[in-house]
């Protein structure tokens, strides 16, 4: 089997999804160098971190977490591009697992009752074939043993892409797009909302709005990357 794998590697060389360099046999999706050197946020060590501050005065999130800090034209952008546009959903799942492993290693409490990925509109989901945020959330759920629910919140309106919009336009573009379908099931629960990349926070604010009037609900957020200076 090893000889077959080595032969296949010669024909179809495996490259790191972050830097593009050839990977060693034991490496998976991301090379060891990138695993160590990618710009990790470590926001779980700083409760009042930059992502948390993005929502100050607007949303009372409990935890504001992100695996990476986004870097323009860098390796994190390449990872996000490969996940979203190159059908690398398994990469998102892998990142969810290793991020959770790091959180648990640092004794960070993942005492959430439910993990809810930010949903895509059914038309976009059909077009793309998968929800990258859901695959990242699946990795978190598998490692943390916290239930993931993809039916509690739905996207009721289709929106245009946020990528080239200014801050107010992003906020305006997502107002009223989410709906919680089973409010009784989240009463008194601590929900972890999971997105792929956070910029202005407009999408998460819209998601929070759909939960805010539910009795005793608490919301935290997590993402693959936080793009404080735009995406």
Note the topology.
Elements lengths: L1 H10 L20 H6 L12 H5 L9 E6 L5 H11 L3 H17 L8 E4 L4 H7 L3 H13 L8 E3 L11 H7 L4 E3 L9 E9 L3 H10 L6 E9 L5
Parallel strand pairs: 1-6, 2-5, 5-6
Antiparallel strand pairs: 3-4
Helix pairs in contact: 4-5, 5-7, 8-9
The strand line-up of the biggest sheet is 1-6-5-2
CATH level 1 class label:
Alpha Beta
What is the annotated CATH architecture?
A: 3-Layer(aba) Sandwich
Q: List how many beta strands DSSP finds.
A: 6
Task: Work out the strand percent.
Answer: 5-15%
Overall geometry: globular
| Helical content (DSSP H or I, runs of 4+) | 25-40%
Q: Kindly name the structural category.
A: alpha/beta
Whole-number tally of structural domains: 1
String of helices and strands:
HHHEHHEHHEHEEHE
Q: What is the residue-averaged pLDDT?
A: 89
Poorly predicted regions are: 3-8
What is the makeup of the main sheet? Answer: 4 strands, parallel
End-to-end Cα distance: 42 Å
The CATH topology corresponds to Rossmann fold
DSSP summary: helix tally: 9
Based on CA atoms alone, the radius of gyration comes out at 18 Å
Structure characterization notes:
The protein is of the alpha/beta class and 231 residues long. The chain has one domain: 3-Layer(aba) Sandwich (Rossmann fold), CATH 3.40.50. It contains 9 helices and 6 strands; from the N terminus they run H-H-H-E-H-H-E-H-H-E-H-E-E-H-E. It has a 4-stranded parallel beta sheet, with helices on both faces. Helix 5 runs parallel beside helix 7 (132-144) and helix 8 (167-173) packs parallel to helix 9 (202-211). The longest helix is centred in the middle third of the chain and has 17 residues, at 89-105. It is globular, with a radius of gyration of 18 Å. The protein starts with a helix and ends in a 5-residue tail after the last strand. Residues 3-8 have low confidence and may be disordered.
């Amino acid at each position: 089997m090893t000889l077959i794998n080595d032969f296949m590697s010669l024909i179809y060389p495996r490259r790191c999804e972050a830097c593009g360099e050839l990977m060693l046999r034991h490496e998976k999706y991301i090379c060891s160098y990138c695993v160590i050197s990618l710009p990790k946020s470590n926001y779980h060590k700083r409760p009042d971190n930059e992502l948390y501050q993005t929502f100050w005065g607007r949303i009372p999130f409990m935890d504001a977490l992100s695996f990476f800090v986004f870097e323009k034209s860098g390796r994190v952008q390449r990872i996000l591009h490969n996940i979203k546009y190159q059908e690398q959903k398994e990469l998102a799942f892998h990142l969810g697992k290793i991020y959770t492993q790091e959180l648990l290693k640092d004794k960070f409490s993942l005492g959430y009752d439910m993990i809810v990925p930010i949903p895509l509109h059914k038309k976009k989901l059909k077009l793309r074939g998968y929800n990258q945020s859901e695959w990242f959330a699946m990795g978190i759920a598998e490692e943390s043993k916290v239930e993931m629910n993809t039916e509690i919140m739905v996207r009721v309106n289709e929106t245009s892409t946020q990528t080239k919009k200014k801050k107010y336009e992003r906020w305006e573009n997502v107002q009223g797009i989410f709906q919680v379908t089973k409010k009784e099931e989240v009463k008194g629960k601590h929900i972890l909302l999971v997105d792929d990349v956070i910029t202005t926070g407009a999408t998460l604010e819209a998601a929070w709005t759909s939960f805010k009037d539910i009795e005793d609900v608490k919301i935290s957020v997590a993402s693959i990357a936080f793009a404080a200076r735009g995406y």
